[in-house]
Amino acid sequence: MAKTLRVCLAALKQRPSVSDGVEKLISVLHECRDREVDIVCTPEAYLPGLRGASFDLPDPDQPAMERALKDLRAACRETGVAIIAGMEWQSELGLENRAFVISSAGRVLGYQTKNQITPGGESENYVPDGRRRVFAVKGVTFGITICHEGWRYPETVRWPAVRGARVVFQPQVTGSDERGQKPGKWGESFYEKAMQCRAGENSIYFASVNQAMKGQNSATSLIDPEGNLIEYIPCGKEAMLIADLDIGSATRLYTRRYRPELYPA
Asked: Secondary structure of the chain: what % helix, strand, coil (to 5)?
């Protein structure tokens, strides 16, 4: 297992088409190569955008998603950078909100589907697949919780932490691009407080990536294993947060002390 992991949290604005979004992600991968990043995480369902949110989106286009995945695999292979790419995907179950994990060699390591789906517009568009997974880059195990899951269901973070995750990434879209909202001081919102809880209660890093929008309810933020803010991107700003994670400090202390037998169903 690597002693450090250099991560990039890419707070990106919505693009007008899937092809434009892919082009942006490829440019991010090239910049990450120049800055020696190991893995970059994108916002939730960045391709084509989150249905049920404030975006004007085309109908689902599975061939476009398959082309996008192929192009991203090639870009990861070219740049030597891994990516967590938020995409929608048509399966036999229906339309899923997935976060694909592509290795630095361009191999699909798997994906995490959003299973605790936000009531309302999202639940009318997406279906869960009912499974949780862990992944590894440079020998560092990590998990993924998608937006609403990490806010309201802390079990979705505990699950990968119990299975060895030192980092949990949270692709999210929380807020609106239709109306502005003046952000308060960092840490005042429920969502940012929840980030701190998810990190501190598991003794792991929590890396949350929101889309850059006019009215964000939370900032793209990186939290250390004690629940302290490392760095954030101001709301509304498109930018890349790059940081080196000291993996040894993610001790999983409280996770390792967890005794699920004390809480029978």
From this structure: 25, 30, 45
Q: State both tokens at 166.
A: 């030192």
Cβ–Cβ < 8 Å for 130, 107:
no
The tokens describing 73, both together, are 């695999």
Grouping H, G, I as helix, E, B as strand and the rest as coil, residue 198 is helix
**Residue positions counted in the chain:** 265
pLDDT digits (tens, 9 = 90+) for 45-84: 999 999 988 888 989 999 999 999 999 999 999 999 999 9
Q: What is the C-alpha to C-alpha distance for residues 154 and 173, in angstroms, rounded to an integer?
A: 18
**Crossing angle of helices 62-79 and 18-34, rounded to 10°:** 10
pLDDT tens per residue across span 6-32: 999 999 999 999 999 999 999 999 999
The CATH number covering residue 227 comes to 3.60.110.10
Q: Is 215 inside any structural domain?
A: yes
Helix (H, G, I), strand (E, B) or coil at 137: strand
